[in-house]
UniProtKB/TrEMBL annotation:
Gene3D superfamilies xref list: Acetamidase/Formamidase-like domains (2.60.120.580)
UniProt-listed Pfam families: FmdA_AmdA
Species whose genome carries this gene: Macrococcus lamae
Cited InterPro entries: FmdA_AmdA, FormamaseFmdA
NCBIfam families, A to Z: FormamaseFmdA (NF045496)
UniProt xrefs under PANTHER family: FORMAMIDASE C869.04-RELATED
Domain of life: Bacteria
Protein's name according to its UniProt entry: Acetamidase/formamidase family protein
GO molecular function: hydrolase activity, acting on carbon-nitrogen (but not peptide) bonds, in linear amides
């Protein structure tokens, strides 16, 4: 049986927990627990905003969410005997919801506070609450849909070395410096406001708070990759950069569409996860897994077989300018095309947008060699709709 090593109280913020987690990446954040290779254990997690979002119909909390607080993570977990150059092997044994909190949320972030993938089309905050019944989710805010979730950690990763942390901060600051007044910002730089750093105190807390990397993007350590197929049964191979690896996890999602396009994405929730760790000594060199993690997906997937697929190409939707094999533009157009279709089915643009971020929608790069247009696709499982949405021939 997996022992519980990280327990949370849903009525308390992360810094108030018996074992406070963290919301920055830094090698000097102390481990909360240690485990042995081959050991399995259970960790509980708060939702990524640290409980800022309420189960109501008012999106004001989404509009005003304190993004300096996110993501609150459970951990770090020190794995005994693991060293830089090894591969940390992490099996996701199981993952689930709390019986006392069987709901989650999705939201569109306001342009002036984070924004989203389609921020220039949907600049205002919106929120949808999703209720869980077993493996299914429904929402009073996005009616006439019901789908099976793929519960997964949006964020799981290991600690960076000091050299790696310094490189992250250097390259991201260089990007921000190209357009420092952009809204939303090009990157989120270190900010000591609202830091949670485990048990650190005093001068050590102040130093790490000034240097710690924000948990917003995915990086070489894994982190906030938001991969919906990284669910139970999956095995992850993490390059190790510090002694003990210092594994952390959080940002649990009940379900998510590929791309997590609303940014307050997927269906965010608190919950629990059971993990097992092992080590491949010298595995980074042996298997050449050095720059980013690799993983094997688990066998658990919703059984949807019929899709309505929307294409997008890399032509700017505002100016009509041709771009060169730009998958970002192509995927944006595929999403916009799907939203326009869903509007014809009676949904508002905001409802359709949040549905694409919440349901197990498939996103693909279909072609990225046929100059000048990349082609991306968004696939809607037609079985999730309680009404038939397929276009009908004239009768």
């Amino acid at each position: 049986m997996a022992k519980k090593i990280f327990e949370i109280d849903l009525t308390k913020k992360m810094h108030e927990q018996k074992y406070p987690g963290h919301n920055r990446w830094h090698p000097d954040i102390p481990a909360a627990f240690s485990v042995e290779p081959g050991e399995s254990f259970k960790m509980e997690c708060l939702d990524w905003t640290d409980g800022q979002i309420s189960n109501n119909d008012d999106p004001t909390d989404i509009k005003n969410v304190n993004l300096n607080r996110v993501h609150v993570l459970s951990g770090p977990v020190y794995v005994n005997g693991v060293e830089p150059g090894d591969l940390l092997v992490v099996d996701i044994l199981d993952i689930g919801t709390f019986s006392a909190h069987e709901w989650g949320f999705n939201g569109i972030f306001a342009k002036e506070n984070g924004g989203s993938f389609l921020v220039d089309h949907y600049p205002n905050a919106a929120k949808s609450i999703w209720d869980f019944e077993g493996i299914y989710a429904t929402s009073r805010h996005v009616p006439n849909v019901k789908f099976a979730g793929i519960i997964h950690p949006g964020l799981i990763g290991v600690a960076p070395s000091q050299e790696m942390l310094d490189e992250w901060n250097r390259r991201e600051k260089a990007l921000v410096d190209t357009n420092p007044n952009r809204v939303p910002a090009l990157a989120n730089l270190p900010d000591p406001d609202s830091c949670v750093l485990g048990t650190l105190k005093g001068a050590d807390f102040d130093r790490v708070a000034k240097e710690g990397a924000r948990t917003v993007p995915p990086r070489e350590n894994g982190g906030n990759c938001d991969i919906k197929n990284l669910s139970k049964g999956s095995r992850i191979y993490f390059p190790v950069f510090v002694d003990g690896a210092k594994l952390s996890v959080g940002d649990l999602h009940f379900s998510q569409g590929d791309g997590e396009i609303t940014f307050c994405g997927g269906i965010e929730m608190p919950g629990w996860i059971k993990l097992k760790v092992n080590v491949i000594k010298g595995g980074m060199d042996k298997y050449k897994i050095k720059r980013n993690p690799a993983f094997q997906p688990g066998p658990v997937m919703p059984h949807y077989n019929e899709y309505l697929v929307f294409e997008g190409i890399s032509v700017n939707e505002f100016s009509g300018d041709q771009t060169y094999l730009d998958a970002n533009t192509a995927y944006r157009n595929a999403c916009l095309n799907a939203i326009e279709f869903l509007k014809s089915c009676g949904y508002t643009g905001e409802q359709a947008y949040m549905l694409l971020g919440s349901a197990p929608v498939q996103g693909n790069v279909a072609g990225i060699v046929d100059v000048p247009n990349a082609c991306c696709t968004v696939s809607l499982p037609k079985e999730i709709f309680l009404n038939n949405i397929i276009p009908k021939l004239d009768e």
